[in-house]
Amino acid sequence: MNINNFVDKKYERMSLKQLTGAPVEALQGLSETDAKVLKEAFKVKTVSDLAKLKYIKWAQAICLLAEGETRTPVSYMNINKFVDKAYEKWSFDQLKDAPFDALQGVSEGDSLLIKKAFRKKQLSKFANIASAIVLLAEAEEAVN
Fold it and tell me: What is the H or E stretch that residue 36 is in?
């Protein structure tokens, strides 16, 4: 069992627990330049930091819920504490295509940095891999 297709060669012999503390660029396809952007914008340094970044979790939740959303005349749900005021009336489906700074706490500057750095790559892919590594590392530790 291995996750060699998801981590760079020099990290292939690490345990899941060790990978959680590895620099974020340990994820295959995430460059040192990408890592610098994540550090500058969100103070993300490690695989664990990326997995636990609240903005990533919010964006993942919005994208997932957009898949099953249906519009009704009345809704009792809102995510106003997570999105900027200008986006409060948007549907999940609309929000999934909104700029990253639609999320409360993400500046327009940081949003542009992320967009530029990850233009051809999907930040969500790296976040999903990081989340899986952290989740399995925690489960592995709980079993021992």
Answer: helix 32-42
Measured CA angle at 131 (ends 127, 134), to 5 deg? 140
pTM: 0.85
pLDDT higher than threshold 70 for residue 106: yes
Is 1 part of any domain?
no
Check pLDDT > 80 for residue 120: no
Compute the distance between CA of residue 104 and CA of residue 127 in angstroms, rounded to an integer.
Answer: 19
Q: Is residue 31 part of a domain?
A: yes
Q: Rounded to an integer, what distance in angstroms lies between the CA atom of residue 117 and that of residue 113?
A: 6
In order of 25, 52, 89, the CA distances from 92 in angstroms are 30, 21, 10
Type of residue found at 87:
Y
Q: Give the integer Cα–Cα distance in Å for 96 and 26.
A: 27
